[in-house]
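Re: the 122-residue chain
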Amino acid sequence: MAVTGLGLPAALVLSPGQDADVTHAPAVVGATRPAVVIADKGYDSRRFVRWLRARGAVVVIPTRKNSTAPRGIDAERYRDRNLVERFWANAKQYRRVATRYEKTARNFLAFVQVAAIMILLK
């Protein structure tokens, strides 16, 4: 999920639960042209960071503690990482999203998109 600086949905990709988030990050970010990308340590990948910088985005992703080349981050900007979590908290107010009743990924994605539209309309 990618959100704008106001916490509104910008892009959404549904992936299997066993996949690492960073493997699907280019598909999510590629749908937008962000000036800044803020993410947690799960998105710390040299390839992904290089790809973002080549697109002109400022990268605010802390390095994992076992990293051989630590990067500095803007702590003030990193505080805005919770915008995605706040979006999901709002989306889970819709029961079908929170309980995941849908058996197929297509149907679940459709209900998440409906919840995102409802959040946009507020």
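The chain has a mean pLDDT of 90.
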